[in-house]
Write a structure and sequence with these properties.
2 domains; six-stranded parallel beta sheet; metal-binding; Rossmann fold; elongated; 27% helix; 362 residues; alpha/beta; Quinone Oxidoreductase, Chain A, domain 1; five-stranded mixed barrel
Length: 362
């Protein structure tokens, strides 16, 4: 391409400081260096984690930054040493890396990597190095991705090459929401056929978790949210029961215990709230109940009484649903992009994608 090896000037939504609106700016995107790939972003969604960094985490050293980590695009150029990608490839940028060489990559129990952006910088939510500049200042790449820019540069170990036929406006949701929720149910919780599940929070991640529970064969799936307008969407994804904590004068864990003869087999917290995390754990049946933390937060300690775990419950966390870029390569060719679940998932984030698309491309 004519732009290969050159600095690209493009538009991006820049977060100059915490708790302030994003500003559409012209930024400079440097050419890819060794083992890097420059990507033209075609579609992006908005995830709560973007808002968390801007309005909740607000780490002073995490700004200025270009947010966004749920995108899809086309390879514009590659740097020296890149052999798996070439210009024109359709790709999904990922906030999880896979170098295939470190002790984490070689262990099938995890999808984490020692060479990922989060190594020692999870509080700032960005690697120290960046290919972005704006008005003479370095601009950080949020979670190593920064999909709220028309172009971004990433290490090849954090990119998934996808089916050339995959629609980018849909597959961008695999960059976080769908994989995070679906994988948390299937890979992390390991939901079993005939089981009962409760999903707390019915955003894109929570709805994907509901879909994962259904795919795994759960018999009853409780959708828990304080917004009843979300229950219709949850039903499409497979939820069988709907519980609004505001409708009850007792703890939601007690409500679910009474509805399930002691508690659910699996619960997934998809909010990122430590109080909800405790409720999700205590909603599980003693002896074998499994509760998974899916929602992102690092602001407060999470706690429960020891007897909750002594009684046999398991409390665990899930990052990106345990998926890797290699699992995405397998998933994409096997997905039916015309099916109802994928269409609804697309509709959930469509309005948010249109906002980003409007500002970045017009």
């Amino acid at each position: 391409m004519a732009t290969a090896g050159k600095v690209i000037k493009c538009r991006a939504a820049v977060a100059w400081e915490p708790n302030k609106p994003l500003v559409i700016e012209e930024i400079e995107v440097a050419p890819p260096q060794a083992n890097e790939v420059r990507i033209k972003i075609v579609a992006t969604g908005v995830c709560h984690t973007d808002l968390y960094h801007l309005f909740e985490g607000m780490h002073k050293d995490g700004f200025p930054a270009v947010l966004g980590h749920e995108g899809a695009g086309i390879v514009e150029s590659v740097g020296p040493g890149v052999t798996e990608f070439q210009p024109g490839d359709k790709v999904i940028p990922l906030f999880v890396s896979q170098c295939r060489e470190c002790r984490f990559c070689k262990n099938p129990k995890t999808n984490q990597c020692e060479k990922g952006w989060a190594s020692g910088r999870h509080d700032m939510m960005a690697p120290a190095d960046s290919r972005f500049t704006c008005k003479g200042k370095k601009v950080l790449q949020f979670m190593g991705t920064s999909t709220f820019s028309q172009y971004t540069v990433m290490n090849q170990i954090a990119i998934a090459k996808i089916d050339p036929a995959a629609p980018l406006d849909k597959v961008c949701l695999l960059g976080c929401g769908i994989c995070t929720g679906y994988g948390a149910a299937v890979n992390t919780a390991k939901v079993e056929p005939g089981s009962t599940c409760a999903v707390f929070g019915l955003g894109a991640v929570g709805l994907a978790a509901v879909m994962g529970c259904k795919s795994a064969g759960a018999k009853r799936i409780f959708a828990v949210d304080i917004n009843p307008d979300k229950f219709g969407k949850a039903k499409v994804f497979g939820a069988t029961d709907f519980v609004n904590p505001k409708d009850h004068d007792k703890p939601i864990s007690q409500v679910l215990a009474e509805m399930t003869n002691g508690g659910v087999d699996y619960s997934l917290e998809c909010v990122g709230n430590v109080t909800v995390m405790r409720s999700a754990l205590e909603s599980c049946v003693k002896g074998w109940g499994v509760s998974v933390l899916v929602g992102w937060t690092d602001l407060y300690d999470v706690a429960t009484r020891p007897i909750q775990l002594i009684a046999g419950r398991t409390w665990k966390g899930s990052l990106f649903g345990g998926e890797t870029h290699l699992s995405l390569v397998w998933i994409l060719p096997n997905m039916n992009w015309g099916c109802g679940c994928v269409r609804v998932q697309m509709q959930i984030s469509l309005s948010r994608q249109m906002v980003c698309s409007y500002f970045l491309h017009y």
